[in-house]
Amino acid sequence: MALLRLVLPLLLLAALWEGAVALLHISPFYLPPLRQVLGAIHALWPAYAQAFMVTLGEAVVGFVAGALVGVASAAAFHHARWLRDMLFPLFIASQTVPVIAFGAIVVLWFGNTLMAKAAIAFYLTFFPVTVNALAGMEAVDPRQVALLRSFGASRRDIWWKLLLPSALPRIFTALRLSAGLALAGAIVGEWFGASIGVGAMLLAALFNEQVVAMWAAILAAAAVGGTIFGVVALVEARLVFWRDEL
Amino acid sequence: MLTVGAAAGPRAKLQLNGVSRHFGAVQALAKVDLGIAEGEFVTLIGPSGCGKSTLFNIVAGLLEADKGGEVLLDGAAASLLGKVAFMPQRDLLLPWRNVLDNAILAAEIEGQPKRAARETARSMAADFGLKGFEGHYPQQLSGGMRQRVALMRTFMFDRDVMLLDEPFGALDALTRAMMQRWLLDIWSRYRRTILFITHDIDEAIFLGDRVVVMSARPGSIKLERRIELPRPRDPALLTTPEFNAIKRELLDAVEEESLKTFAAGAV
Ligand SMILES: Nc1ncnc2c1ncn2[C@@H]1O[C@H](COP(=O)(O)OP(=O)(O)O)[C@@H](O)[C@H]1O
Ligand SMILES: [Mg+2]
Fold first, then answer.
1. Over chain B, what is the mean pLDDT?
2. What is the least distance, in Å, from the CA of A156 to any CA of chain B?
3. According to DSSP H, which parts of chain B are helical?
């Protein structure tokens, strides 16, 4: 049933694509038929599969690191006001630098490695996670904290049994947002000279004016984004099943 | 018959001596003296804002009393955090924990293994009217049931002294009457020392071995009244002349204090 809910809109979109191209006589320069795009992917399947895996790897490493660092920073900021006053402005300042400007430097530092792309994905992920996780922890009812303290709870107990679970709904809101950002980060990273990956494919297709290949790369990027988003949504449904009741 | 600030004999389970507390310019409590004997059920009544919850927070170790006052548990003045079972005004159940796991929260924090704690909780569920609901989540329960889960959590935090802050305040009259009888039944089986806040005089008399009336803010003990009505008590008691005589006596004191609060513009 859930699978149907996922597949049905995709089929609808595909039909719309094919139908529009055929009925409105759209020039293949603007939008090639879906069949042709899928055909191109099929013809070069190993290359696309590799690009998918590489970009997915870069985005996921940055995303997971960003999520962990985001939650950890939020915890630190929540416990130590002075730390928050000192570091939070730096966090905000960091986000005013556009990632594009930053990309060249990162590639300079890390070279053309997975780490370079992951670093950019990380940079885009950790901030929304920090902000949302912190907001979630600050929103915890102080009476709830008092109750746990009356049971003799340590800070550690309060964090694991109350603060973290309470913040989960907001953390996942940030993670769903960051899934797309992490992918964008990985793609931008690839633009600074990578030869493998969805972003690299996109750029190559653009230079060679291969419209079909461009659309194929876009589909591959969508598959990466959809995979990350899907996993996040699945984990969220398991962990935050009580979300609606708040 | 009426005494003020009396200790509950030489071996009080819980003894408060001259406990005061202020918040900035607001004096919430002024020199509260109160002694509670082992196994006693004391109900505390007073106008809203007179410092009842503040008093509980002090006894639970969550707030410091002002200098000069002392709280003795079994005669000793040690830190109170984790020493008494405290049930705050709201149930404060965790929405991601089911009934059993909410009930074992305190036990878990104490370091009891989860599995053993769950077994204990499972065996207590029937006593607390929660049989068949062990796997339900708080948002699936009625107000009365949520309150019973919170009470079970408090009972499972196995301490001699229990502090219950208006546990039935938010329930409708019928549910409340049922819960009162049920609490007395549970209390007679688990035998704990209970200090119970309420703003309902009937409830205070029906439940208590002793009713303590607090004055308007700054709160102090205005009077204490021993309730010698026989136990087990049942609802028919509420219409007896003895009950009404006690109620008359207490009403005067409570209303006087409520009027003071009203005049001070606090209600
Ligand atoms: N943390 C606090 N900070 C400032 N004032 C407080 C605080 N807690 C309680 N008060 C004040 O102390 C008084 C007593 O409050 P409380 O103990 O909650 O009364 P009650 O439970 O009897 O209704 C009130 O005037 C309240 O505003
Ligand atoms: Mg109160």
1. 89
2. 10
3. 52-59, 99-103, 105-109, 114-124, 143-156, 173-190, 201-207, 241-263
Q: Which two tokens stand for residue B70?
A: 């002392």
Burial degree of A39 (CB within 10 A; 0-12, 13-18, 19+): middle
Which positions of chain A have pLDDT values less than 70?
A: 1, 244-246
- Please give the pLDDT value at position B267: 53
pLDDT attached to residue A28: 85
- The answer to whether the CB of B53 is under 6 A from ligand 1 is yes
**Domains and their CATH numbers in chain A:** 55-240 (1.10.3720.10)
**Residue B54, ligand 1, Cβ within 6 A:** yes
ipTM of the complex: 0.85
Distance B263 CA to ligand 2 centre (A): 19
* Greatest extent of chain A over all pairs of C-alpha atoms, in Å: 72
Distance between start and end Cα atoms, chain A: 26
Burial of A93 (0-12, 13-18, 19+ CB in 10 A): exposed
B266 falls in which pLDDT band (50, 70, 90)? low
Stated pTM of the model: 0.86
